[in-house]
Automatic annotation (TrEMBL):
<dbReference type="GO" id="GO:0030687">
    <property type="term" value="C:preribosome, large subunit precursor"/>
</dbReference>
<dbReference type="InterPro" id="IPR044281">
    <property type="entry name" value="IMP4/RPF1"/>
</dbReference>
<feature type="compositionally biased region" description="Low complexity">
    <location>
        <begin position="177"/>
        <end position="186"/>
    </location>
</feature>
<dbReference type="GO" id="GO:0000470">
    <property type="term" value="P:maturation of LSU-rRNA"/>
</dbReference>
<dbReference type="InterPro" id="IPR007109">
    <property type="entry name" value="Brix"/>
</dbReference>
<feature type="domain" description="Brix">
    <location>
        <begin position="212"/>
        <end position="420"/>
    </location>
</feature>
<feature type="compositionally biased region" description="Acidic residues">
    <location>
        <begin position="116"/>
        <end position="156"/>
    </location>
</feature>
<feature type="region of interest" description="Disordered">
    <location>
        <begin position="102"/>
        <end position="187"/>
    </location>
</feature>
<feature type="region of interest" description="Disordered">
    <location>
        <begin position="1"/>
        <end position="64"/>
    </location>
</feature>
<dbReference type="GO" id="GO:0042134">
    <property type="term" value="F:rRNA primary transcript binding"/>
</dbReference>
<dbReference type="Pfam" id="PF04427">
    <property type="entry name" value="Brix"/>
</dbReference>
<dbReference type="GO" id="GO:0000460">
    <property type="term" value="P:maturation of 5.8S rRNA"/>
</dbReference>
<feature type="compositionally biased region" description="Basic and acidic residues">
    <location>
        <begin position="23"/>
        <end position="62"/>
    </location>
</feature>
<protein>
    <recommendedName>
        <fullName>Brix domain-containing protein</fullName>
    </recommendedName>
</protein>
<dbReference type="GO" id="GO:0005730">
    <property type="term" value="C:nucleolus"/>
</dbReference>
Amino acid sequence: MPSRTTRLSDKAALPFKTSNKQRRQDLHVKQKRARDALKRAERFSRKKEEAKNPRLREERLRRNVPVTLDKKRVYDEIADEPEDGGLGMVYDVERLKRRKLAEEQELQQDGYAGEDVAELEEDDDDHDSMLEESSDDESDSDENDLEPADLDEDTQDPLPSKYQLNSSTSCLKDRATSPTRSTTSTNLSLAPAALAAKFPTLFLSPDSPPPPPPKILITTSINSTLHNEATILTTLFPNSKYIRRSSHRYGYKFSVREISAFAAKHGYTSVIVLEENQKKPSGMTVVHLPVGPTFHFTISNWYSGKQIPGHGRPTDHVPELILNNFTTPLGLVTAHLFRSLFPATPELQGRQVLTLHNQRDYIFLRRHRYIFRAKRETERSVVGADGKEMRGTEGIRAGLQELGPRMTLKLRRVDKGIQRASGQDWEWKAKMEKKRTKFQL
């Protein structure tokens, strides 16, 4: 308990209004010291009680779940997938398909239960049926006990199985949920069928042959000075080439539509136009060839590799691609666009990884080089979602070194086809959203 000298008096809590500025400052300092002393004494007393009873700490941590905007995120209420793909609607594709999967499993269980009851009514005199039911239950339990590693690749489903759903819910009963979904990777195989039909060049069917390696043409806006930044982008996207845009006063000013037609004839798969504002990168337009669509992003917080402390030098290896937290139909379209800019088979020798992390409709782009090393004595062990140590990672740690560039992207518009000078039709356009808890990606 705090001493009597550190307790707040009745007068100290009153909002005194005095004309003496020095007295007001002294009173504010005394009140702040007294409050800090009370909080410190309360914290130390709670630690003593939790040291005697560890369950008190577990209960406090279970209740202490921070409420963030990601925790309050809301979606549109949708019963079935929209016929047009739902590009302008905000709903979780994976959650909708998981709910349908759970409903189908419940219907199957109800059907099996009805069949078992009918068989029992018909065969009341047959006592050996109990053995048959027990064998069926054992086979069902064996199927449920199979882990994903024991299943074949052909029988695996992109959605979690019944065993995974039950195991995940049982593991998370004693532990509070994470406040954010920062480590949720995007499942690209859960795209709606209508959305895949609208963008056939982005959503490739599993039966189709592997796509050709990407070939990217990078350019800038007219009269741009971002030559170094555009050259940096050539190191970020593999198999890309930077061509300067004509800025001579008597030269012909090629439009993005003409550049895209030229690039499509020469075998390019994408065109990236880097835009400038006050000699800094302010936007990026990505045209998916040969017929579009066109994505418009704004760029903020641009940092080259030289501006990052302790940066490394990138190599020519193809990086691995990590896409995090793209859950809505618009998010899946954006994720497939970034996937089309990189080869389908990355080179794991260079140990380079490119991360595109979506958080509140802001896409954070980072590039690192990783290395596996031994665990140090001062480091903690890796803990999973269930609060237990992960198997196989007891003595291994991963060291990261950022390579750059570093930027933050914001999707503003998705155009139909390749953009024109005016009167462009768009698939999706950012609007002034009144709800701060609704995110588009």
